[in-house]
Design brief:
Number of helices: 4
Helix content: over 70%
Strand content: under 5%
Largest sheet: none
Distance between the termini: 49 Å
Shape: flat
């Protein structure tokens, strides 16, 4: 029988990552990019766009927004 072994976050996240602090500004930027993505996704859904269009229009824009948010520092 397979046994489930539950780990705490600190047990599987790299120690280097766990020491990185996240600022309120970074969280707000992430939240803003996510809200824009959800809005764009809803627009794509309402206009019955195909999956490739949704990926190219909504998802790509979301990752571009996240990427540009991290480059501001």
């Amino acid at each position: 029988m397979l046994k489930l072994k539950v780990k705490k976050p600190r047990q599987f996240i790299s120690p280097l990552l766990s020491k990185k602090s996240v600022t309120i500004t970074e969280i707000e930027r992430f939240d803003s990019a996510t809200q824009q993505y959800l809005s764009e996704l809803e627009i794509q859904r309402k206009t019955n766009q195909s999956e490739p269009n949704i990926v190219s229009n909504a998802t790509k824009q979301y990752f571009d927004n996240l990427s540009s948010n991290t480059k501001r520092h």
